[in-house]
Amino acid sequence: xxxxxLPSQKRIPxxxxxxxxxxxxxxxxxxxxxxxxxxxxxxxxxxDTAEMYGEGEAELITGEAMRGYRDNLYLxxxxxxxxxxxxxxxxxxxxxxxxxxxxxxxxxxLHWRGSVPFAETLEALYQLREQGKIVDYGVSNLDLDxxxxxxxxxxxxxxxxxxxxxxxxxxEADYALKPFMDSxxxxxxxxxPLDQGHLLQHPVLRQLAERHDATTAQIAxxxxxxxxxxxxxxxxxxxxxxxxNLDAAxxxxxxxxxxxxxxxxxxxxxxxxxxxxxx
Length: 279
Hints:
This is Aldo/keto reductase. Residues 14-263 form the NADP-dependent oxidoreductase domain. The chain has helices spanning 29-42, 57-65, 86-100, 118-130, 144-153, 177-183, 203-212, 216-225, 239-247, 255-264, 271-277; strands at 4-5, 11-12, 17-18, 46-48, 74-79, 105-110, 134-140, 159-165, 187-191, 230-232. By secondary structure, the protein is of the alpha/beta class. It has one domain (11-277): TIM Barrel.
């Protein structure tokens, strides 16, 4: 499974570990650290986190889990929209670096759009890049209009990714957003790649899981990894599930498999179809 080449010519792994909801319950901290560390030792090369997750606790957990492994990892974090001003982005990044116990982020994302003009946020990201505190930058949760506006404001044209909700059941990005991103060589980082487990009992997924001696989660992840320019960041705190998710990288779906999945979970053909999928 080849890494994705970004506009900066850097490369990003296509499958990693998510941390959404980590750091919200102190009693689960050691289990969360252990799950991330197991994933890293099992071969995960990417971890995605954010200052929002547990109000910084997920970054602390990530920093503890990756101790001794930082050089082998692609590290992604995100900043709040209310930290998107020129000075605030710098400060937020420095806080994240301290929590993660690292000197740089491989990718730093605006978590969602707020009131700060994109040009101002980009100025701060350019500065962080020049200082070596981040390698690449990007966005999260931007729709097509916002994505176009961001690209118009990006004087370097080096946006690496847009992290959005994307999975077999939620394919609204396929209608217009993803084609635009593909044209700009901007990767799509899919959060909730398993729809928080809601699609895993689907009969077609079960049929294909039996055919490949796999699990339905692995089929859903393999479908994502078969899509152009897509990165998946499933999250789990259970070691066996972490292993299962990472093993999906070894699963190759056939054209017949993909046809069955596209019939069961059709790509939206219109803006109305895309809106219906969002409900």
